[in-house]
Structures
1.
Amino acid sequence: MRTNDPSPGQASAAPALFHSRGPISAALLGMLPHPLEQADGLAVLAQHVDAAIAATPDILHDDDLQLSLFVLYGLNYGSVVAADDDWEWNPGLIAIRGAIERAFEAALRERVPAVPLPPANREAVAEALFELTKPSTGPSLSKYVARQATDEQLHELVIQRSVYTLKEADPHSWGIPRLYGRAKAAMMEIQADEYGGGNATRMHSAIYAGLMRLLGLDDRYGAYVNQVPAITLTSLNMSSMFGLNRRLRGAVCGHLAAFEMTSAIPSRYYGNGFRRLGYGEDVTWYYDEHVEADSVHEQIAGRDLAGSLAEDEPQLLPDILFGANACLTIDGWAGDHILASWEAGRSSLRVPLAPAERVSA
Amino acid sequence: MDAPGHEVPPLHPLIVACTDGPLLVRGDVELVAADGEPIERTRKVVALCRCGASTIKPYCDGTHKLTGFTTGPEH
């Protein structure tokens, strides 16, 4: 059996195991470690998935369905779940993934507020995206971190964000071959920088893994999946779905633009939180890097990526704005959950972190 | 407006004056301090502060978005 091992250079040593959150994820996690030849039961599973989709009150917060989608996308990413590699393109699993994606996308289109459309030209699209993403003056997770988060809360933040950040840039990179011309060049210019500009030690996911080790946390991918709530998985699943479906290439570009436009200033605040508690530049490197990098990326993403795409494929303009506001909405909910938990004196984690789960630095 | 870098060789220096934002510098440009010492540059494209409020000058840190900095219609 071939295993879905991490690629060279990735921090993780072995796929982490995590628990199911309901019948669908339990069936998938039970099935995937076995060779494809044992794929009986997929038709029954598909029926259960349809029933779960029909029954869920809110797929955007559904632990079982979001974990299942996370596991299915994990077959494409690798190093998420122990699995026979042949499962990646199994038609039965692709059909199940498609069924969950259709319901997921429909829920996003219903719940993400519509944004007025600018004219389909570079400057107007960049201006509209900067307006949509402009810093709020109200309370925010990053301001809380800068001013009053405890050391334990900083560890929680790093755990919550690790689900995406240990794969930083990967979801959007699925979009690269789905673009052409100016938008593709702009996406490449941003992503090359995300991946360290040819230097593996500067790769953002590698800098984050180093941060986790410095904090005494486990940097293997998926080590903390058990701890994070559905909305954290929803956030990553959304960008994976946008990247992996060509018809959603407008949304993946809008998502990346909004993500970059809401990163530099919060990153400075997160770094300030660590500095306030006495951590040094080795720990704040990840955040300091994003203050500088994302001030560049947001300009490229606004004009050269989203703006050029809108000019070259104007029919994608609504999805560019949809992807941007979906990023703000879902990541906003994920951030609000953490902030509300802390303000109520609770952990934001689904399962509190046991002391044994912190490995020594 | 044509795409930046569209009609020039990849390493030809190009500076984009971003509306209400930084100067985006692409290509083979040497960045030095007033005393001639090179300024550390770790990425291919850099954004130079032009609002004056960045905490990491000469690079942009996005603070222009908090101060209401505008470049006006003529950039």
Note: Chain A touches chain B at residues 122-123, 126-127, 130, 134-135, 182, 185, 189, 192-193, 197, 202, 264-265, 268, 291-296, 298-300, 303-304, 308 (CB under 8 Å).
2.
Amino acid sequence: MTAVIVTRGLVKRFGRVRAVDGIDLDVRAGDVYGFLGANGSGKTTTVRMLLGLVLPTAGEVELLGRRMPRAARSVLPRVGALIEGPAHHGHLSGRANLSLLDASGPGGSWRTRRRRIDAVLEQVGLAGVGRRPVAAYSLGMRQRLGLAGALLRRPELLVLDEPTNGLDPQGIAEIRELLLELNRQGTTVFLSSHLLAEIEQMATRVGVLDRGRLVLQDRLATLTAPTGATVVRTPEPDRVRAALDGRVTAVDGERVVVKGDDPAEVNALLVGAGVPVIGLAPERPTLEEVVLAAARAAGDRVEVRERGR
Amino acid sequence: MIAVELHKLFRRPRTWTTIAVLNALPLLVAVLLQLTDLAPRPGEGPPFLSAVLTNGTLFPLAALAIVLPLFLPIAVAVVAGDSVAGEAQAGTLRYLLARPAGRTRLLVAKLVSVFAFVLVTVVVVAAVGYVVGTTLFEAQPIAGTSVSGSTLTPEELTGRTVLAIGYVTVSMLGVAAFALFFSTFTDSPLGATLGALAVLVTSSLLFTLDAASPIAPYLPTRYWLAFVDLFRDPILWRDVVRGLALQGVYVGVLLTAAWANFTTKDITS
């Protein structure tokens, strides 16, 4: 599979702080890549380095096979981006904003501009917004307009930072469907977020950033693969322990974890022993458990440094 | 890109409000002069104002002289200071650069649009001054009077007025260069504007100080009023040329510095 985003030993130092500390991203064509990390873990700095806004202290970035920021002029027109929330000129209409943005760089022909603007406004659900200035838009509408700007040139790669911020639940579901549809049509989506649920519902691959380091990067299906144990729900956990001597690894209220990856086999044994079983499933770690195990502390917690060292 | 920046600047209501306000002061002065008939004595008050009562066609120059010391530089500093820092504050700078607009191209486009603003503003002030001058006062279309007392033909007067407009524009480009320079360093348009104004206030203050006379020839505001010399007979070129050279050096150095900073800086706004 072709690499769409590759970084090698990417470092960004702000003064004495290493905001990004040697990360090797590997995003492939067709991925929905979930880029997870607590606030302050370096997500936004990384996104800005990918787009050539922040210049790396060390390491390199390749976007669509070309070195950044050197090839920005040829690569970035093929990339759509939403960086830390949308931003527009408040006194102009959404349409005028899109038009000006499109005219500000290469790769957006003015002949097709009107048509492309109509199409993306329709896609993000702003077709009927008219000539209202953006200053009168709600937060959700601005977010949709930001997304429309990212989609304007049918990009091969979408780099989206918190794309559902400010949207209501219906809006979130709608945008998620739109992104998945674009992905089915071949767009690679790089989704930066601290919302685990959002990533878990969309991503095919996940990278987890913790204090500037990439502590985890793998397929979501691999990360949340069955552990080889079975979870049994029962009102009488003690009787499970008696029936399956030595195979019980954990008991938590009505939830009992039993060794063995075949729920049917476990069930047969429990029913045979007359233990009431309410629920039965192979044990899978949730993404939250995986992420918490990999990334320990919240990024914006500032601990008191020990003195005398 | 340049077209986009011009569009942004001149589609903005604030730009036209600024230009309108800028014309209000000369208009007020003209109305007061007309009502009271009390012109300043020759050599007092703003240049040309003493001659306006007898010849309204000189009022464009009086209008420029009225707004030049304070109003015009403020307006230019506001627009130029807003150019990059305003986009940074609104958050649109990151989208422009990720588009990608290209940092050098964006800076050039901003520069051109600021230049256009300066030119349009100066020309509008002169044009409004002409209309006001010829309606409120006696106009002598046949000839004008030079500052030296001799008579200028209408052709000479027109030519010299155009030269004066050009000279004032170049002087204002110096202000614009300071504001644009500061604008690449901060995410606050107000900070950039105030930075440029602080430079001008310092310069005007030092100019009046005898102790600062060794550096006086290098102060950015030193030759601003030299456009009056264009109306002497014959034209006194010395200060005009020095003024142009000085502004040229300031504009060149500041824009190079602005470019060097802007093309290598991390955009974190």
Note: Residues 3-223 of chain A form a domain with the Rossmann fold fold (CATH 3.40.50.300).
